Amino acid sequence: MKTRVFTIDASKDLKAQIAPAAAIIKNGGVVAFPTETVYGLGANAYDANAVKKIFEAKKRPADDPLIVHVSDNSMVTGLADAGAISDVARKLMATFWPGPLTIVVKKSRAVPGVVTSGLDTVAIRMPSHPVARALIEISGVPIAAPSANLFERPSPTKASHVLTDLDGRIDAVIDGGSADIGVESTIIDISGEKSLLLRPGGVPLEKLEELIGAIEIHPSVREKYFYGFARSPGMKLKHYAPDARLVLVEGTRDRVVESIKKLAADSIKDGKKTAILSCTGAIQVDGAISKQLGNDQAQIAKNLFDAFREMNALKIDVIIAECTTEDGLGLAIMNRLRKAAEKIVRA
Ligand code: TXA
Ligand code: MG
Q1: Among all ligands shown, which has an atom nearest to the Cα of 182?
Q2: 64 lines ligand 1 (CB under 6 A)
């Protein structure tokens, strides 16, 4: 199939530019589109055949459910079970929507099982990106959309990343520039008695707890793999990985830097093309490519997946990455680094 590219011109009317992509969604096709977190690959959430195409294009296993994106609260009523929208849900929606927060609630029967991988819950989010909002609005249906990457690869933060993975496999991509946040939405499961953080993301845990009190953290958030009971099937899988072998070094700053320098020098001695991704300042080692991800958590989050893809293009064999602290966006950054890592070294 030929993948069409719709490039948004900010100086022109947005709705007219989105209309052809919305028509593809209405006709059961799949379209990649920008959100404030990462690019998504969308289809009409009520059309099981269209949603199946998402799984095929991404080579995503069927047991990994999708997030459904809405453009206004009235769409939630059709997706969630009557009574599923509790006071906690209402507070979260009122405070963090539109924005990078996904809530998991009991689903209505109208949501096809392929969207939720057979679970009795559905993940819902209202993105803030104007292009995403317009696409949902004009399509007139909620849009099921995972990140628009091939399974296990880093999430795309630019249209070019989407095309690297999915050119020829999807109907279209809307190029709306770089995603602002760079890591995916925070997912909170409020379908049970206790609120449970399933994935840290664009809304920091601290902000959620300020609003609704203590939130339990799913063990998979801080571990690379989790084989126990998974409320979010996708969590147990390898994720976000660059082509290179990624070694993540955790510990206190001085020891981490010392350890990274040694690991990089050894890797270069072994003849490996080596890169260092740092969080606190550039770390230089002769023969290694050195890249500082940013000066603060927001910059690091924004650049992380882009840096992974840049390392793929440079055919790097080994990436040695420095940890960051787990406050604010740091919990999401460390979660993605741990999932992507082949090895975690404690310095
Ligand atoms: O920022 C984002 O959330 C992006 C943009 C496109 O909105 N989307 C995204 O989707 O990251 P995806 O598919 O890459 O990650 C969705 C995660 C998966 O790990 C999946 O297991 C979990 O959401 N999920 C979906 N439905 C769920 C449910 N009913 N219960 C628990 N987890 C669910
Ligand atoms: Mg994903």
Answers
A1: 1
A2: yes
From 37, 108, 143, 184, mutation site for ligand 1 pocket: most ligand atoms within 8 A of C-beta = 184
- As a residue count, the chain comes to 347
Local mean pLDDT, 10-residue blocks, the chain (347 residues): 97 97 98 98 98 97 95 97 93 98 98 97 98 98 98 96 98 98 98 95 98 95 66 58 95 96 98 97 96 97 98 98 97 96 94
Which atom belonging to ligand 1 lies closest to the Cα atom of 67? 25
pTM recorded for the entire structure: 0.96
User: Using CA atoms, how far apart are residues 122 and 105, in angstroms rounded to an integer?
Assistant: 6
The ligand whose atoms approach the alpha carbon of 184 most closely is 1
Alpha carbon distance 43, 31 (integer Å): 7
Measured CA to CA, the distance from residue 134 to residue 280 in angstroms comes to 38
**Does the N-terminal peptide bond of residue 219 adopt cis geometry, omega within 30 degrees of 0?**
no
Shortest-distance atom of ligand 1 to CA 60: 13
Could you give the domains of the chain?
Answer: 4-221 (3.90.870.10), 245-346 (3.40.50.11030)
CA 172-175-176 angle, 5° bins: 140
